[in-house]
Design a protein that fits this description.
The chain has helices at about 10-20, 40-50, 70-90, 125-140, 160-170, 185-200, 215-225, 255-260, 270-280, and strands at about 5, 25-30, 55, 95-100, 145-150, 150-155, 175, 180, 185, 205, 215, 235. The chain is an alpha/beta fold. It has one domain (about 5-160, about 185-210, about 250-265): NAD(P)-binding Rossmann-like Domain (Rossmann fold, 3-Layer(aba) Sandwich), CATH 3.40.50. The protein has a six-stranded parallel beta sheet with strand order 2-1-3-4-5-10, sandwiched between helices. Strands 6-9 form a two-stranded parallel sheet. Strand 4 (about 95-100), helix 4 (about 125-140) and strand 5 form a beta-alpha-beta unit.
Length: about 280
C-alpha cells in the first residue's frame, strides 16, 4: 500500500508520518506549498504522478473563531479541497480518508452520545465548512472513509493541552468552560484506528474518538494534575468568553459503531491523555 498525506505540517499529519517512518511504510507527504488541495490541477498532477492507493487528507482550516469572518478560506480548505480530492481519488481509484468534526452537531441531543445517524445542524461557519467537506467526499468518491473527530490533541502547539500549559505559566488563575462537553481524542488513537479500518477494508462514515466524554473543565483539571501544576481553575460558562463563533455545548460522539465493526475497544480519553503526557515527560 502506498499512502499520500495532505496537510503535512499539522499535528495529525505529523502523527501519521511518524508512524509510517517507524514502520517503513511507503508514503509521500508533500509540503503544503507543493500540494494545495484547493487547486484541482495541482491535486490531479500530484496524484497522477504518485499513484497512491490511499489518500489521507489531514489538511484543514481549524481556526474556529476566525472562520466567522474568513468564511471563504474555511470553505476553500474544509469543503472545496476535500471535494477536489474526492474527484481525483475516484479518477485514480484511490481510497480517500477524510476527517470530519463534532462541530457539525448543535449540541441539543439529550438522550446519549451522538451517533452517525443523528441529524446534523452546525452552529458556526467552521462547522458548516466541515459538513460541506464530508458531504462532497461522500458525493464524489466511491471508496471513502470519513472519520469524525473531536478535541484532537498530539505533538505540536495547535491543541488544548499545549495552550493550557502556556496559560498556566502566564496566569495567576485559569477560567475554563464547565458547560462544554466533548471527547478529547489522541492523534495516536486516530492513527491506530484509521489504519485498522483500512487494513480491514472498512469504508463509509464513522465517529472516531477516544471513549467516554468530559467537560473542558474536567479535561483541564486532569491535564494540570498529571503535569504536576498547582493552579486555581475556576469553572465558568462558555458564554462568559464572548467568542465570535457559537459552539455546541454537548458534542460528544459515540465510537461504538467503528469499535464494534473492528472488534477492538478504543481507549478512554483519560488513558490517552495520561499516556500522552507521560511520553512528553519522558522525552
Amino acid at each position: 500500500m502506498k499512502y499520500l498525506i495532505t496537510g503535512k505540517n499539522g499535528q495529525l499529519a505529523q502523527a501519521f508520518i511518524k508512524r509510517f517512518e517507524k514502520q517503513a511504510i511507503d508514503f509521500s507527504a508533500p509540503d503544503e506549498s507543493q500540494l494545495d488541495i484547493t487547486d484541482p490541477k495541482i491535486v490531479d498532477r500530484v496524484v497522477e504522478t504518485l499513484k497512491p492507493d490511499v489518500i489521507i487528507n489531514c489538511a484543514a482550516y481549524n481556526l474556529v473563531d476566525k472562520a466567522e469572518q474568513d468564511k471563504a478560506a474555511a470553505f476553500a480548505v474544509n469543503a472545496t479541497g476535500p471535494g477536489i480530492l474526492a474527484q481525483v481519488s475516484a479518477k485514480q481509484k484511490s481510497i480517500l480518508v477524510h476527517f470530519g468534526s463534532d462541530y457539525i452537531f448543535d449540541g441539543l441531543k439529550e438522550n446519549g452520545l451522538y451517533t452517525e445517524n443523528d441529524a446534523v445542524n452546525p452552529l458556526n461557519e467552521y462547522g458548516k465548512s466541515k459538513l460541506s467537506g464530508e458531504q462532497q467526499v461522500v458525493r464524489e468518491c466511491e471508496k471513502y472513509l470519513v472519520l469524525r473527530l473531536s478535541w484532537v490533541f498530539g505533538a505540536g502547539k495547535q491543541n488544548f493541552i499545549y495552550k493550557l500549559a502556556a496559560w498556566a505559566e502566564n496566569s495567576e488563575y485559569l477560567k475554563i468552560a464547565c458547560d462544554e462537553f466533548s471527547v478529547p481524542t489522541s492523534t495516536e488513537t486516530v492513527v491506530d484506528f484509521t489504519l485498522k479500518a483500512l487494513e480491514q477494508g472498512v469504508t463509509g462514515k464513522y465517529h472516531l474518538t477516544n471513549s467516554g466524554f468530559c467537560s473542558r473543565y474536567e479535561w483541564a483539571r486532569l491535564i494540570l494534575s498529571n503535569l504536576g501544576i498547582t493552579k486555581f481553575v475556576r469553572p465558568v460558562t462558555m458564554d462568559s468568553f464572548n467568542l465570535p463563533a457559537k459552539r455546541p455545548k454537548f458534542s460528544a460522539m459515540s465510537n461504538g459503531k467503528l469499535s464494534g465493526l473492528l472488534n477492538a475497544p478504543i481507549p478512554t480519553w483519560e488513558e490517552s491523555v495520561k499516556s500522552f503526557l507521560q511520553k512528553g515527560n519522558d522525552t
